[in-house]
Amino acid sequence: xxxxxxFSEQEVRRIHETCLRLLETVGVDFxxxxxxxxxxxxxxxxxxxxxxxxPRLVEAQVAKAPAQYTLQARNPDKSVVIGGxxxxxxxxxxxxxxxxxxxxxxxxxxxxxINFVKLGHASRSMDITGGMMAEPNDxxxxxxxxxxxxxxxxxSDKPFMGGAIGAEAARETVEMAAILFGCSEAELAEKRPIxxxxxxxxxxxxxxxxxxxxxxxxxxxMPQLIxxxxxxxxxxxxxxxxxxxxxxxxxxxxxxxxxxxxxGTPVVFAGSSSCxxxxxxxxxxxxxxxAVNTAATAQMARFYGIPxxxxxxxxxAKLPDAQAGFEAMMSQLMAxxxxxxxxxxxxxxxxxxxxxxxxxxxxxxxxxxMCKRIKRGERADEDRLAFELIRQVGPGGExxxxxxxxxxxxxxxxxxxxxxxxxxxxWQQKGAMSIDRRANRxxxxxxxxxxxxxxxxxxxxxxxxxIERKYGA
Amino acid sequence: xxxxxxxxAVMAFDEDKVKQLTQTEVAAGTEIGAILxxxxxxxxxxxxxxxxxxxxxxxxxxxxxxxxxxxxxxLKPLLSAGQAQSRGRVVIGTVKGDLHDIGKxxxxxxxxxxxxxxxxxxxxxxxxxxVQTAAEKKADVIALSALLTTTMPAMQTTVTxxxxxxxxxxxxxxxxxxxxxxxxxxxxxxxxPDAPGAVKLVKKLMA
Lengths: 473, 207
Hints:
- With about 475 residues, chain A is α/β, with parallel strands linked by helices.
- Chain A is about 50% helix and about 15% strand.
- In chain A, a hairpin with a 4-residue loop joins β15 and β16 (about 280-285).
- Chain B has 2 domains: about 1-85, Methyltransferase, Methionine Synthase (B12-binding Domains), Chain A, domain 1, CATH 1.10.1240; about 90-205, Rossmann fold (3-Layer(aba) Sandwich).
- Classes of the chains: A alpha/beta (about 475), B alpha/beta (about 210).
- At the A-B interface, loops of A face α6 of B.
């Protein structure tokens, strides 16, 4: 499969050169003394919190980031390759609210978080679990990261996302992962079971908490997304090109820091910029401009030879309705077609990151299945062109009874999860259900049939002991 | 009719023209109150209505507010004590630990456009700073903003501090993760899901 490319090679180079010029002459603010020291020592000019990057330093450091690496899962069959021809889907991240058709919109709890770990675990399209899929508002702030990490470790054996709020959360995530794998932190750096998302404070700045976590993860050799969400017309120029330049400049600055701390530490070149909904002055993520940025981000990351993050099943809709469906498919498909490697928010997001929806999680899982089918690619070789078969069947024949169809249809044709494809009469007889009602029934079934992967009792005990020692029983 | 021209210039987002026309009217001896109320504030009221109806977008509304302010600066030294009195004074800021300010800035600009006197304390503002400034400036309303769930508790701290200081100022809160339920829970006097709503809310609290 060839990738969709938004810009010409010449344009990519021009974008890159504009970013280098910004890095050298305008600079980026780093409000964290240890980061300033590292950058100064490497040859950056530092004035207060403003850091000016020599272009040669940027290019040399960015070139050190690996093009591909593997996240080792607790279950080796579920390890995930980041980079190359691979695409990884990861569920929603960050919403403080959840919603479902039965109970409506509400503040999310740890129970919701655990449910989303289970849904992510059971999904055939999700490669990695959260990461703050639903914020556990019922748990004290200081304890939240540890409880989320524990749930991700216990209820799924896929790789998972680490905490990002400050150096302490990063440290805690690494320590808990070392307990889970029963290994030293040096060995953990070889396994890389976790990946985390760290964000610039756009435009052109990084704050102390994110820098603390970036530095901590880089020291530990844990993979991280260096991410920017610039908002066209609000935190960046209203043109998508100008927004891309702001985003790209921030991401490059962050990646330089990671490589200076630990050469070759794995990163993802992560962009999730979009535009303002100008009627309200708010962020819009279900926007065609978001899709443009996704394609452009993939292309820029390819230019740098670093895995990319972009897209997601993103929507501004309030319900799992038609708007939610078409917006989600637009950006998920764009990520797939443009060669993105890491797609955060691949399931569940509504209201521009404010809400995780149980029903939309299932509907997006369908979108993800379809996108993975498209991504799998075809080979126009003799066997698959099936000339011999077509000759045998001849004009006017049929293929439904052919052995070739029988033998291959399951792997060739995508099998839907909740989509309705039956006849009208049958659909009516089955209760004439809309897609959101079907999704409602489906997530309950998944949770009912969920089977917990085995975790050794002593590991579980050690993890609980770690949490209780820090935060009490 | 020249006051109508000022009204039209605000509606056309033309800052220079508003300045020039306002100066001309002042020089011609037109009543200052009429220029202010029928020209500048009248235009902003219409801008507000067209914005609420979805005809005008945020950048246009902000440009109109800037044009209006340019005219207001010329009138300010000429206003009598009664005319100079603003609709009310609002102290606004993003709470401690939070550095996000787009929403807060939008609210501040819209409040200024609506004729309120706004004191913007910026981002990462400690509760003591809110209390101190509100006391000094005799604020009618203290408006708190937060984007992060981790900084929402700082809203509670601030609302409590305002009450403990015995200030007459009312507190209002807003930001993406904030809800009416949270406002009730922490004892804030009001909540708005968006900037135009915040202006209406302050008008209501001041009524």
